[in-house]
């Protein structure tokens, strides 16, 4: 569950980086420093991705339902009759 979350977020992050790279090429036409802009924006995007993963992972863990079943069905019946 958590690995699929990380995989999904990482894929979205890569798409955003690709878009950012295209935007950086356009900004080079205006004379701004595209490498510095790409570094700062990509760092911001990575931090946002990390926070999203943390937030969603905690949500999964808080909503997790644990179902405990006896290892051996006969063991549960023996324990009940021993209590009587």
Explain what the structure shows.
This protein is mostly helical and 84 residues long. It has a single domain (2-83), classed as Helical scaffold and wing domains of SecA, CATH 1.10.3060.10. It contains three helices and no strands. The radius of gyration is 25 Å and the shape is rod-shaped. 0% of the residues are buried. The model has no long low-confidence stretch (mean pLDDT 83).
Q: Per the principal axes of the C-alpha atoms, what is the gross shape?
A: rod-shaped
- Low-pLDDT parts are none
Question: Order of helices and strands, N to C?
Answer: HHH
Which homologous superfamily in CATH is the superfamily?
Answer: Helical scaffold and wing domains of SecA
Main beta-sheet strand count, sense and barrel state? none
- Termini, distance in Å? 42 Å
- How many helices? 3
Query: What's the CATH topology name?
Result: Helical scaffold and wing domains of SecA
Given helix and strand content, the structural type is: mainly alpha
Helix content, binned percent: over 70%
| Count of all domains | 1
CATH architecture, by name, is Orthogonal Bundle
Instruction: Please state the CA-atom Rg, rounded to the nearest Å.
Output: 25 Å
Number of strands: 0
CATH class: Mainly Alpha
Q: What is the mean predicted local confidence, pLDDT? A: 83
- Proportion of residues in β-strands: under 5%
Keywords:
single chain; 82% helix; mainly alpha; Helical scaffold and wing domains of SecA; 84 residues
What is the secondary structure topology, with strand pairs?
Blueprint (H helix, E strand, L loop, with lengths): L1 H29 L3 H29 L10 H11 L1
Helix pairs in contact: 1-2
């Amino acid at each position: 569950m958590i690995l699929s979350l990380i995989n999904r977020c990482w894929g979205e992050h890569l798409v955003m980086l690709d878009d950012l790279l295209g935007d950086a090429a356009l900004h080079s036409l205006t004379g701004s420093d595209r490498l510095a802009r790409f570094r700062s924006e990509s760092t911001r995007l990575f931090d946002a991705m990390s926070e999203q993963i943390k937030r969603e992972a905690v949500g999964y863990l808080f909503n997790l339902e644990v179902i405990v079943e006896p290892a051996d069905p006969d063991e549960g019946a023996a324990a009940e009759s021993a209590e009587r």
